[in-house]
Amino acid sequence: MNKTKNTAETILDTAQSIVQEFGFNGFSYAHIAEKVGIRTASIHYYFPNKEDLGEALIARYHRNFISATAQIETETRDSLEKLRKFTLIYSAPVQNYCTCMGVMLATDLATLSGKVQEGLAQLFNANLEWLEQVLDQGRREGHLNFEGAANVQAHQFLASLQGAQLLARSFRDLSRFDMIADGLISALTK
Q1: Which residues of 114-136 are buried (b: 16+ CB within 10 A; e: fewer)?
Q2: CATH of domain 50-187
Q3: Are 61 and 102 in contact (CB under 8 A)?
Q4: Which value, in Å, is the radius of gyration of the alpha carbons in the chain?
Q5: C-alpha to C-alpha distance for 69 and 78, rounded to whole angstroms
Q6: CA distances from 71 to 35, 75, 122, 143, 190 (A)
Q7: Which pLDDT score is estimated for 1?
Q8: For range 25-42, the mean pLDDT
Q9: Domain extent listing, the chain
Q10: What is the reported pTM?
């Protein structure tokens, strides 16, 4: 059972890194098999088809996001610091000139199964809901300053980080992500 879990997790880890670099339509099971050092039949054992793999990827990514934001919540009460730590979640893939899996899956949205599309929407909603809560709390406490509704600001914040990933990747310049992320934080403290 432990071997099964390790093999399935290794497949998911490998698939995620490939998706973050090439997109969901940019690989086959043969690519994963080559990187992991197993036969494609072994991948089919755990994930009978690519849609099953996609569903497992987005579900795991969502769980990891929930875990990451829960950790942020336990580490700090300051809303501004929470937002800084949130930007680190989005900066991690940029270090390898990739984007988060959500961004890459969104670019392939029309070709994804309904369940993967639904999982992606749930992931984005979780991001937006968390951001809205943090922004709203920060404004109530006087730590953050912005015009308009917190949910609008949350959308702008998330879209800016996702766009920053794409620019950093396109230019192969990490400083572009940092510039945008820093600008987002600075704009909320004026």
Answers
A1: eebbebbeebbeebbebbbbbbb
A2: 1.10.357.10
A3: yes
A4: 18
A5: 13
A6: 31, 6, 20, 20, 27
A7: 40
A8: 96
A9: 50-187
A10: 0.93
